[in-house]
Amino acid sequence: MKIAIEKANKVGTGWVAVKNSNHFGIAGYHAMMALEHDMIGMAMTNASPLVAPTFSVERLLGTNPICVAIPAGEQPPFVADFATTTAANGKLEILQRKNQEAPEGWIQKKDGSVSINPNELKDGGALVPLGSDREHGSHKGFCLGHGWIFFRPF
To answer: What own/partner pairs with CB < 8 Å and gap ≥ 24 does 112-118 have?
Structure first.
C-alpha cells in the first residue's frame, strides 16, 4: 500500500498486485493507510474455493475479502470491510475450538442442505454466499464472489 500511495502522489492513481499472500484479515488496515493521505484505499484478494454459489453444492468461489476506505472531510471516513460469505472460515475454526455449533446460514452439507456443524468443510461441505440462501439475498454474495473469480493467483 505504501508503494500504491507513492504512485498516486506522483500520477493520481497507484495500483499494486501481490502474489503468494496468505490470510487477509488485515485488508482494512491496508485500505485505511490511504486515508492518512486523503486518498481512497482499496484492498482485496481472492481465496481458495470454499464457497458454493446459490443453488450449487460444488465449492467454486473463495471468500474473497474486499475493503474500501474513503475519506469524508470533517466526517468519519467511510470504511467497508467484508467478505463475500456470511462468515469466514476462521469463524468456523473458532467454533470448532470452543466445541460450539455454527448459526444456520453459514455453511451447507455436501448435498446442499443446511448445516450447523462447524466441521462441515472437512466433510465436503461449503460456506454459503453472503445472504445465506435465495430468500435472504444469497445472489448478492454470489455476485460479489463471482466478480472476483477471474483474479487468480499469478
So the answer is: 112/52, 112/56, 112/57, 118/92, 118/93
CA 100 to chain centre: 23
Give the per-residue SS3 of 67-112. Answer: EEEEEECCEEEEEEEECCECCCHHHHHHHHHHCCCCCCCCEECCCC
Domain boundaries, the chain: 2-147
Cβ neighbours for 53, distance < 8 A, ≥ 6 positions apart: 60, 61, 129, 142, 145, 146
Is residue 103 pLDDT above 90, yes or no? yes
CA angle 107, 125, 119 (to 5 degrees): 75
Nearest Cα residue to 14 out of 28, 4, 24, 29: 4
For 41-95, the pLDDT digits (tens) are 999 888 888 999 888 899 988 888 889 999 999 999 999 988 888 888 888 999 9
Distance, CA of 28 to CA of 147 (rounded, Å): 20
Question: Does the pLDDT value for residue 152 go beyond 80?
Answer: no
* CATH fold of 2-147: Ribosomal Protein S8; Chain: A, domain 1 (3.30.1370)
